[in-house]
Specification:
about 20% helix
């Protein structure tokens, strides 16, 4: 059984992101609005994703949203 922790960046009244560490060393991510959908990711891949987001690699123009 996984021990889910809510992100400290999640607000009380909004959709919350939860993370859990699995026995195989991967991380699991899920959103409170759809807890049945679980993303499985390695810590290295998550670090790379966070760096890319912070660098603006996934930025959208207002007309694309």
């Amino acid at each position: 059984m996984l021990s889910w922790q809510k992100s400290s960046f999640s607000e009380q009244a909004s959709s919350c992101l939860y993370v859990a560490s699995a026995p195989d060393g991967t991380l699991r991510l899920r959103e409170s609005d759809g807890p049945e959908a679980v993303l499985r990711i390695t810590p290295d891949t998550l670090r790379a994703l966070i760096r890319a987001v912070k660098a603006g690699e996934f930025a959208f123009a207002p007309s694309e949203m």
